[in-house]
Write a structure and sequence with these properties.
single chain; alpha/beta; 11-stranded mixed β-sheet
Length: 369
């Protein structure tokens, strides 16, 4: 069992790509490595933030450090992607809110299914029971469930409003159906936000994943947006983290559960770079629930509103996108990128990856009147 690391250029494959998609992804990766600013390839992935609203109130969420106006992704925005629907590999339904509370969530799954795209979303799991039939009907390839404790008291203290046992029952039912019907999908994993008050539960979470048939456990470091988070960050506790990660690795090996871990502080191959070489502006197209295109969900910089351009290709190669690609990996990068905390591209050797207090974080929302 190898320790997985976040993919930075390509995406997880769950099946063979069509020739057209494979050719596009190959070209996209080539253009990203060349750092081209005007692209002939479509993105490999569409990342659609369906809403910034959530049915939980997690104690560590950056939403608690912001005052914002609730927004929802408009179905008609999907029309922009018609010219590339047969080239894009994946649709990821994820952002600063809980995607499954969008009233048209199932319609987004169906749209991606009709387009032949891989489907991925991240959820707190509270609506999985209602969505189980749709997950199988529309061949949902991958989904992640955020779980920050291996038992109800820990998880419910951190993820306020969740019902731990309800989430686990839903996952057990999904994985039973998957096993009974001998299906390879959906690939599912736990996403664990590691902080002082829960880090020691990571090995137990791996055991829970093995018990209920989850494919993977992914750990990410808590990023602090306020003083509470500063007290919980693991930036100063890497020896503890090393020990717990080693225990989790042992359990993952024993159970055959995939384990994805961030690099330890001081061991990130990014060295003294501001962040790992970033390919998001080539690989992904991120559209927020407010209608603004950003390079990723972890930057506050709004490139432009979707209404500013008439079609996808004029957006994808807009002057704002070209400028982002030109500077994101250079000394001229904006401060949000220089202080990157995006889990896949952050340099975990840096304090700023763990502590964002005093920094603008994404997105800068419009405030409620």
């Amino acid at each position: 069992m190898e320790i997985l690391r976040a993919k930075t250029l390509n995406l997880r494959q769950t099946g063979a790509l069509s020739p057209k998609r494979a050719a596009n992804s190959t070209l996209n990766q080539k253009e990203a490595l060349m750092q081209k600013t005007v692209l002939d390839s479509a993105p490999q992935r569409l990342v659609l933030e369906l809403t910034n609203q959530c049915n939980l109130n997690c104690i560590m969420c950056g939403r608690n450090a912001a005052d914002f106006k609730p927004t929802q992704f408009q179905l008609e925005w999907l029309d922009y992607f018609e010219p590339i629907r047969d080239q894009v590999e994946e649709v990821t339904l994820m952002g600063w809110g809980e995607p499954t509370v969008h009233p048209d969530f199932v319609k987004f799954l169906k749209w991606a299914y009709d387009c032949g795209m891989r489907k991925y979303f991240c959820t707190n799991g509270m609506r999985l029971e209602q969505l189980t039939s749709a997950l199988f009907a529309y061949h949902t390839d991958i989904f992640a469930v955020s779980l920050d404790g291996a038992d109800a008291p820990t998880n419910e203290r951190i993820r306020r409003g969740v019902d731990f046992h309800r989430v686990i029952r839903s996952l057990e039912a999904i994985n039973r159906k998957k096993a009974m019907e001998k299906l390879e999908y959906p690939y599912n994993n736990f996403v664990f936000t590691a902080m002082k008050q829960n880090i020691e539960q990571l090995p137990a979470l791996v055991r829970l994943a093995g018990d209920i048939g989850m494919n993977e456990v992914k750990a990410v470091f808590l990023t602090a947006f306020d003083e509470w988070g500063r007290e919980q960050t693991l930036f100063y506790d890497m020896e503890l983290v090393r020990d717990i990660f080693a225990q989790a690795e042992e359990e993952a090996r024993r159970l055959g559960v995939a384990l994805k871990l961030p690099h330890l502080c001081g061991e990130d191959p990014a060295g003294d770079m501001a962040h790992k070489t970033c390919y998001v502006g080539w690989r992904d197209f991120f559209l927020g629930s407010d209608g603004y295109i950003r390079s990723c969900m972890s930057t506050a910089q709004k490139l432009f509103h979707i209404s500013q351009y008439p079609d996808f290709w004029s957006m994808w190669n807009a002057k704002e996108y070209q400028r982002h690609r030109e500077i994101v990996n250079s000394a001229s990068m904006i401060s949000h990128c220089a202080n990157c905390y995006q889990s896949s591209f952050a340099n975990w050797n840096k304090r700023e990856s763990f502590i964002q207090i005093g920094q603008d974080f994404a997105p800068v929302w419009e405030k409620e009147n």
